[in-house]
Amino acid sequence: MSDPVKANSSPFRALPSVDQILRDEGTEWLKTSVGISRLTRMVRQVTEELRLEIQAQPANLTGGLNRESLLREALRRLEETVRREATSGLRRVINSTGVLIHTNLGRAPLSELARKAVANEAAGYCTLEYDLAAGTRGRRGDLVVDLLKELTGAEDALVVNNCAAASLLTLTVMAKGGETVVSRGELVEIGGDFRVPEVMANSGTQMIEVGTTNRTSVKDYRRALTTNTRLLMRVHPSNYRVIGFTSTPSIADLGALAQEVGIPLYVDAGSGALKDLTDLGLDDEPIIGDCVAAGADVISFSGDKLLGATQAGLVVGRTEIIQRLRRHPLYRALRADKLCLAALEATLSSYARGAERSEVPVLRMLALSEDEIEIRANTLAERINAQRSSQLRAEVIKGESAIGGGSGPNVFPKTALIALGHPSISALEIEKRLRSSNPPIIARIEEQRVLLDLRTTSPQEENDILTALEHFS
Ligand SMILES: *Cc1c(COP(=O)(O)O)cnc(C)c1O
Fold first, then answer.
1. 92, 238, 303, 454: which has the fewest Cβ within 10 Å?
2. Residues with Cβ within 8 Å of residue 377, at least 6 apart in sequence
3. Does residue 270's CB lie within 6 angstroms of at least one atom of ligand 1?
4. Which atom belonging to ligand 1 lies closest to the Cα atom of 236?
């Protein structure tokens, strides 16, 4: 608080009060757009800001220190605050970064079918737990379970909030109070606070580390078994690779050991893949059906990584295990909601029809060839260069896209990039203006140039880019 004597003396007296500002007719539209209570909070903030500035550097207040100019300044700042808040919620953006599964941008974009299912079927009342034919209560996510069984060959399946929740649930139900054996080479951290040792600790299972960072054998697992062993765990290293002198048992080898000693094998596949993606350069993501066939008893993977749907943790495995997971109280806290199940249902049905490469955006974009992208980039670059109102120069150069989301850390599909330059506007400034356009366009900067990768930008979004670049004179 300011010194009361000082606050009562000029120039503080010229500062309009909260009430005065709220009564000014210039705030009418602000009241309707954000509501009176939020506006009051903003007015308090703005007057406090002005008070501090008058105290510290009165010379910086350009309009002078009379009541009229301070009121105008307060109103200007209020409008700015309201505008900023209006653009701070969840907004659609154009991803021109070339990173397919961009965690900061919401990971996988949904397919058209998934969007329709969410908006038209699931958003209102729906058959979430209702059996239409019988007119009685049905089971949540029935079709998703059936599709997952069909696509992976597993006996049963279950859906929770995300893959982190899936491993927390699996470890808690299967191994709490006992020991879980895991290789030292798999004690990874996946972006955003998922750390294998911490999930183990939170699940109440004792982590028994075996092998070394680079080499672990079946013998290592076998030697670690005790009467307290409840689970063998295999974690896909996802965003991290050890190369050189390395070895790790196959899932089939671990599955054989698990069966021999009567202890279940849990595979946290991370992204995983429902179908083989080797021809797209992804040759070391575990294929979920292969894990089932190789003898994994329970497997978890993400819904919004390479699968290309929404945030979800998919668990498939033996009936007896899935039933135990479903019956545990933790499942009730972690289960997926109707919007998630609708998106999964639509996406999995694309896989079931064999149409995933044309219908699921992540796979469709991954499958684009460098040539296809280059043709689009050349056309767009020509249109940018033809815009008379702008001095921006676009050039098409070779480059690389990335997978992101902790998948395929060493896979960089070849692409064609649009490189933007301007005689007087810096790359930083261009990038910033793109980011503040509507819809915002997210680009990257390399060597003083702004780069746009059309692999992750849809053809319909190219017009938005053109409009955003119209007035860089
Ligand atoms: C990504 C990942 C997770 C976390 O998945 P979310 O769906 O983001 O919760 C867990 N384990 C592995 C191996 C992963 O790659």
1. 92
2. 396, 416, 417, 418, 454
3. yes
4. 13
Look at residue 140 and give its three-state secondary structure: coil
Q: Do residues 428 and 436 make contact, with C-beta atoms less than 8 angstroms apart?
A: no
Looking from the CA of residue 237, the nearest atom of ligand 1 is: 13
**Bridge partners of 445?**
450
Q: What is the 3-state secondary structure of 167-211?
A: HHHHHHHHHCCCEEEEEHHHCCEECCCEEHHHHHHHHCCEEEEEC
For 215-242, the pLDDT digits (tens) are 999 999 999 999 999 999 999 999 888 8
Q: Kindly indicate the confidence band of residue 63, based on its pLDDT and cuts at 50, 70 and 90.
A: low
Dist. CA 350–CA 348, nearest whole Å: 5
Q: pLDDT tens, 411-443?
A: 999 999 999 999 999 999 999 999 999 999 999
Q: Give, for ligand 1, the residue of 187, 302, 304, 310 to mutate: max count of ligand atoms closer than 8 Å to Cβ.
A: 302
Q: What are phi and psi of 90, to 5 degrees?
A: -75, 120
pLDDT of 165 > 50? The answer is yes
Residue among 57, 37, 47 at smallest CA distance from 14: 47
How far apart are alpha carbons 198 and 168 in whole angstroms?
Answer: 10
- What b/e string do you get for 94-133 counting C-beta neighbours within 10 Å, with b at 16 or more? bbbbbbbbbeeebbbbbbebbeebbeeebeeeeeeeeeee
CB of 378 within 8 A of CB of 414?
Answer: no
The bridge status of strand 414-421 relative to strand 393-400 is antiparallel
163 lines ligand 1 (CB under 6 A): yes
Whose alpha carbon is nearest atom 5 of ligand 1? Answer: 163
Residue 107 beta carbon below 6 angstroms from any ligand 1 atom: no
Three-state SS at 336: coil
What DSSP character marks residue 103? G
Tokens of 439: 């819809």
Rounded mean pLDDT of 341-352? 98
Q: What is the DSSP string of 45-96?
A: HHHHHHHHHHHH-GGG-TT-SSHHHHHHHHHHHHHHHHHHHHTSS----EE-
The pTM for the full model equals 0.89
In angstroms, the Cα distances linking 265 to 112, 185, 287, 410 are: 36, 17, 16, 27
**pLDDT-derived band of residue 7, with 50, 70 and 90 as boundaries?**
very low
